[in-house]
Structure formats: structure tokens, C-alpha cells
Design brief:
Radius of gyration: 24 Å
Mean pLDDT: 90
Shape: elongated
Structural class: alpha+beta
Helix content: 25-40%
Strand order of the largest sheet: 8-9-16-12-13-14-15-11-10
Low-confidence stretches: 1-31
Number of strands: 16
Length: about 300
């Protein structure tokens, strides 16, 4: 009897421990955040704006891990902000919180939101088109409007032009640090976001048409949104030429042939190439040169491309 009594007493703490572990696991699953916060903006690094946002985040929790996508988005370029998010977010673990501030409408009545994607990532941003591509490619699980009565930096109500610091960085940090749950961000919104229209990749009458959403800016390569599935309908093999037409609105900017290869070193230095970039989208480049600079090709919704065999 003495042995039995001791055993029963020793089991009670074990049950409590198991219950606590189960509760904490459920709690973590509900919150989903992982203490990682990733920043993006068009602020540049010439002044203290980015540092101020990170300071606010660190004030919420010094245990947060703070990283950057980029702060070199061209000023006011919401489309490029959208692209850089979708270029980056899939490579971060589920639970990561992104805060993106390209906000030409700062201080106006545009909505401030947090979108949770079906991939488990959180995006804190003005709902101005920034979420176009992550919503499309990662899917929308839920969208909530930021309740600024609760989720705003203390004593910042008289500031109308730096919501990146006062609202977005503060809310994102609270979310990433699990100081609030996703539900505590604010009221649930319909599962949709402001979307920027763009030319999607299509195949018709022997032609592949697509857009030029972005440049590989460091090297001047021209990235399209034409994936392999659509491109392969041209039945062009590695080593063969692709005929390329590039338009700005309806004005033809470039016409020529490029060699379809796996990588730049497959051709001589200075030779044009067509290849699939790291996101597996068809791209134009020059081995050891800038296609964008040489042929005056830029990116954005006004730019389009046509490929034929």
C-alpha cells in the first residue's frame, strides 16, 4: 500500500506537466508566430527611418529576430513591393511576420491590415496593392484590420506620416513576439485584398505573351512572369533561338533573337541569352552585361513581352 501511494503521488505532477505541454502546444498552434520579423520599405538607408522601426520592434521584445527584405524599393512603387514580397516570403518558415511599408497614401483612409496566408505567413501593410502577389500565390487564409486604438505605439496619435513606425512595426512586433494573437489585431475582414491588375502569361496562336514585373536590378537582367509550363508550349529546346518582342505600352522597344540556355556561361561574353531565373521564370540577360541598360528595357505593368519560335 505504501508503494502504491507513493506512485500515485508521483504521477500527479506528470499529468500536470503533460497537460501544460498540450496546452502550450495548442496555444502555439493558435498563435503560429515564430519570433521572426522581416522588414521591407521604400525608405532607403540614408536616414534613421528603418532604425526607428527596428527600435520600436525591439522595445516590444528584445528577443525578436529582425531581418530585412530590402529598403531600396523605388519610392512609392507598390507593385515592386508586391513582387519583392512574393520573391522572398516562400523561403521563410511558416509563422514569420513581414512588415512592408510602401505607403504613398499614409495618413489617408486606406486600410491598415494583417493578412495571414495559407502558407502560414503574416503580412502587415497598408492594403494598397502590396499584397497582390502573395495573396495570389500563397493564398489568403484570413485578413484583419489593424485596430489602432489598441495596436499603435503609445503617444503617437498626433503623428500622421510615419505609420511604418507607429502602427505597422509596432503591430508586427507584437504579433511576432506573441504579445497578441492574430485575432487581437482587429476585426476580421472579407478574405480579399486590393489587387493591382497585370498581364499574365498566356499561350495563343503560337505566341507566348507575358509581363515584365521586375528587373534583376544588380545585373540588369529582365525577369518576366512566364513560367516553364507556358514557355514549353513553344517547343523550343536548349540551344535554340527564341524570337523576342518587348513593348512599353504599345511601343516596340526591342526585337531580336536570344539563345535559350541554362546559364550565362553557356554563351560567349557579351552575347544575349534567354534563361530561367531562380524563380523559374523566363528571363533575358547578357553574359557579363546588362540587357536592361543596353536595350532600354524597364519593368512594371506597362511593359510586356511576346515570345515565338
Amino acid at each position: 500500500m505504501k508503494f502504491t501511494k507513493i506512485k500515485k503521488q508521483s504521477l500527479l505532477p506528470a499529468y500536470l506537466i503533460i497537460a501544460l505541454l498540450l496546452f502550450s502546444g495548442k496555444h502555439a498552434a493558435l498563435f503560429g508566430q515564430n519570433n521572426i520579423l522581416v522588414f521591407q520599405s521604400d525608405f532607403g538607408l540614408k536616414d534613421g527611418a528603418v532604425s526607428a522601426m527596428k527600435g520600436v520592434a525591439s522595445g516590444v521584445s528584445p528577443d525578436l529576430k529582425l531581418y530585412d527584405v530590402t529598403h531600396e524599393i523605388p519610392a512609392y512603387n507598390i507593385w515592386e513591393a508586391s513582387y519583392r514580397l512574393v520573391q522572398t516570403a516562400p523561403y521563410w518558415p511558416a509563422g514569420t511576420v513581414f512588415v512592408s511599408v510602401v505607403d504613398p497614401g499614409v495618413g489617408t483612409n486606406r486600410q491598415s491590415v494583417v493578412m495571414k496566408s495559407r502558407s502560414g505567413h503574416f503580412f502587415v501593410t497598408p492594403d494598397n496593392g502590396t499584397l497582390t502577389l502573395v495573396a495570389e500565390q500563397l493564398g489568403i487564409q484570413e485578413v484583419r484590420e489593424i485596430d489602432e486604438a489598441i495596436n499603435r505605439r503609445k503617444d503617437s496619435n498626433e503623428s500622421y506620416t510615419f505609420h511604418g513606425r507607429d502602427v505597422y512595426a509596432f503591430t508586427a512586433a507584437r504579433l511576432a513576439a506573441k504579445a497578441i494573437s492574430f485575432e487581437q489585431v482587429g476585426k476580421k475582414l472579407p478574405a480579399g485584398v486590393v489587387s493591382i491588375p497585370y498581364q499574365k502569361a498566356t499561350f495563343e496562336n503560337g505566341q507566348v505573351k507575358g509581363g515584365i514585373p521586375i528587373l534583376d536590378i544588380q545585373y540588369g537582367n529582365v525577369w518576366t512572369n512566364i513560367g516553364k509550363e507556358v514557355f514549353n508550349k513553344l517547343n523550343i529546346k536548349i540551344g535554340e533561338d527564341v524570337t523576342v518582342l518587348v513593348y512599353n505600352e504599345k511601343q516596340k522597344v526591342y526585337k531580336g533573337k536570344v539563345r535559350y540556355v541554362n546559364t550565362f556561361g553557356d554563351v560567349k561574353e557579351g552575347e544575349n541569352v534567354g534563361y530561367f531565373n531562380s524563380l523559374l521564370n523566363f528571363s533575358l540577360g547578357i553574359n557579363m552585361g546588362s540587357f536592361s541598360e543596353k536595350y532600354k528595357v524597364q519593368s512594371g505593368n506597362e511593359w510586356s513581352i511576346v515570345l515565338t519560335k
